[in-house]
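Batch 3, record 17
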Amino acid sequence: MNARTKYKVRMNVNGEARDIAVDPWRTLLEVLVEDFRLAKTKEGCSIGECGACTVSMDSKLVSSCLLLAVDADGKDIVTMEKLTSGESGFSSLMEAFIHPDEGARRARHTGTASTPGTKTSTEIFTFCHLCAGHCSMKAIVEDGKLVDLEPDMESGLYAEQCALNKGRFTIPEVLGHKDRLLYPQKRIGARGEGKWQRISWDEALDTIAAKFNDVKQKFGPESVAFGLGEPKGMEFAFAQRLASAFGTPSVVTPGWSCGVPKAMAGAFTYGSPVVCDDDHLPALVVMWGSNMNQTTGGFRRESLEKLLEAGGKLITVDPQKTDTARLADLWIRPRPGSDGALAAGLLKVIIEEKLYEQDIVEHWTVGFDKLKEHFATFSLDEVEKLTWVPRAQIEEFARTYARTKPAAMQTGNALDQLVNSFQTTRAIAIMRAICGNVNVPGGDVVLTPPPYTRPGNFFLLNKYPRKTEKILGKNFKFAQRSAFIPPHVLTKAILEEDPCPIKAAMFILSNPLVSWPNSQETYRALMKLDLIVVSELFMTPTTALADIVLPAAWSMEHEELGYWPGWYEEIRAHPKLVDAPGECWPDTKIINELAKRLGLGEDFWKDDHEALDLMLKPSGMSYEAFKEKRTLLPKKEYRRHDYDTPSRKIEIYSERVEKIGYAPMPNWEELGRKLEMPDEYPLLLTNAKEEAYMLSGFKGVASVRIIRPDPIVELHPQTAQEFGLEEGKWIYIETKEGKIKQRLSLNRSIDPRVVVAAFGWWFPEQAESGYGWTGSNINMLTPSGPDYDPSTGGISLRGIPCRVSAA
Amino acid sequence: MLLGLPEFELVSTETVEETCSLLSRSGAQAVVLAGGTDLLVKMKHRRTIPRRLINIKGIPNLNQIRHDERDGLRIGALTTIQAIEASSVIGKKFPAVKQAASVLGTSQIRNVGTIGGNLGNASPSAEFAPPLLTLGASVRCAGRGAERLIPIEEFFISPGKTALRQDELLTEVQVPNLPSGAQGIYLKHSLRKMDVAIASAALLIVFDGDVCAEARIALGAVGPVPFRAKKAEQTLNGRKLAGGPGEIELLEEVARVAAEESFPIDDFRGYAGYRRKLVAMLVGKGLERVIARTRA
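Prediction for the assembled complex:
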């Protein structure tokens, strides 16, 4: 192979002649985004399906992700930026550009190949429920089937869908999918053998209720566990309510690795979690482990486009060169798992160079001097060594953040998945607060929720206080306060019967065998249970191990409210659009009916949909009235210096945290935690959310499976060469917990010491091997301890020592 | 996200001869790059890692559509899908080909993808294959020092594999003129119009009065390669289409035989049984429409 030759390319972009020298393998899209900083032209599916990368080339619309930059030589390129200049954010013009073929995206379920629009057709506004973005959509329903989800350009709500359009592709297909579970089943034969018998709902619920009550009587209610995943509607709330009424504290939720650490950090620092204010344009936004082009529950992609158009600055922190890294003014590439040290370094620079707001520190903080004294005990050189980020970059980041006002900063899941998550997000909270970015327009703000029933209230946590010490002892106090236990606590309790035995479990919205750490341990735990109940849309590895399988109805198949994520404090109507197939029941109905059979009917309803009105009661609206309104949004009051803490100030040093039993101040011992990298595992494993899927879900949905057909692992070419690995081949990735195979892709933009593997992989087409949960599943490699974040029970899921080898 | 391409060497050629010579010298590590809308996807997925891409878009005279009464239709391999859809001679004389072009992917793909690429990619659901099979088409292939014409029936070997040798380049598709009285149609069923076919069917019926003198039925996405449903064709050849329940029964029989002749697999888009049902539905509907057209 020849040495890398660069090609000189001249193209006319939006009326301007641009000259650039490119490698032959660079696509036109990459050049437009990275070199020309055009933020509206996006990488979505990358295979020409989604339209996000559309540009006009010599007056013809083309997918720039599938064109080599060299093939744009001499061509006239017009991008969305030019077409929509003056129209900030997402517009109908952009949508028409991306999706020019009228009706081409409408699903035709009935197999008649007829022209769209010739049957009865209705349009109903709703929200996507696939991820936390909740983009507002216009659902097109023809003859009782959902055929498309167009962006809602009319309501003024956020409507720009993720670049890849995963909701638009996935939802219509799932609603009509050939593999939907349609009726309750019970296991016959051995667990995991795959032999099922269809049963009635009555038999299913009676069996479950009898066993749950039997276990409760013999071992105590804590011996019945619940495993809950990411909520879409009210099902999570129903399950929590049931757990409370039943008397079990043994409830696993995603809180242990998502959102809770940073929410606690906000609460203990300035009295509440905060979110980025995109009602006003920040002058700087920091995306720390977050990429709104593909997933957003916070700062919107439309907002980023506006910010960049207005000349605002972007700093991205990510081990990968994500969309936001490409567009950034400063891209910080840290060692996976070292965010705590990075935060400490930033805070140190801000303190020692006096970049903070003097007035705030003097009058509105508690413990500043203690922090300053402590932060003098480590050096920036140590931070550099731990984070792999050059000292000069740390300084630039800190100085830019402190000096550019207002600044909004969003942290992603990776920061909630470390053993020092709480202290890391505490350090970041302090950084926000002393730089004057809390509760200012364009900064990070406290939300005043609209009037609806608070989740804790709905979960009946006051009526039935959780006996969390039965399962958590004195550990993980923030978990105790947030109505969850970490998964490793449950698996250990099942396996060791310590601190209490667990005999039965029910899982909704969840696939523990793929998404809990240490899959082999999870498997052994599941195999030990007396009764496993799973409510699901499809057969999954976890469902395959169930004793009772319940067919779930999905959003849009029943009336629903979306109230999660709780910290964005908005509540949305998700109207029923189509009938549920077969005998599918929504989880809310399953839980409601189960509750009645458990003798807990006093806390539940005749019909589960009555809860919708209860949820809305404080607003004075019924659910039917609320459907017209569609959403209740929080208020942003910008109450500067109104801190809901005991001292009424920013608590850099928190006595409250100290009393609970954790370090009252971010400390170097936790933040600057050394990483042990044994010789036999010389690389560091990390991962990111895959854009085509929602976590481990939807691997059997054709439109997204063609976008990402295989699990891909990325290595730097140098590293691949060192270990004799060939691009395109499946390779082994191994940690001391286990070994998996993924397909190798080389990427020069990651650190050579880093392995970026894919998360959430199992194979619906491999029924014979339990749906392939051992083959490529990253949780075969992750530990379930012994190191934990003491406050939440979190585990470090980023930056795990590993090795790679040829398969 | 961030599906960049693997690294490769790019060589642009300016003539067919140069291309064949380079293909021969490069061996299996080189592939031809035309529109790239199939190739680049496979590369991004790391399912194919060619060391060398031979960019043929600069070769002149490979993107023309010509037609005359003697030689029939000739479509250059680099003709874009969009140009085929927009061609009036194809629309008038070979409507099934235009229909195939109109349902291939999105506008953005059609503006860049080529017919040579669609055939060379040899997907079981290749959009142009069923119509060309019914039209008795051939592909002209240039190799080192020689050229040959491969009938389209012999062109597809297995999924992703064609009869092309290492040094050969597909340069043109040739479609003979149709006998008078011939009516053709292409139907595709996919979840969305822009999606890959779950099943597809092309029909060409040569009418002699109200007799079906010759039936040609080609199916796509329901076997490892697109193919002619010969048994279904035999069921219809020479039969009188007299209208009424007799005709309905005959057409249902043809559709049923076509479905039985297909050998689809289960995949994410559909089960084999469903695909067979679709074949029957598409063939039945195609026959109905083509007959209606003759009678109009």
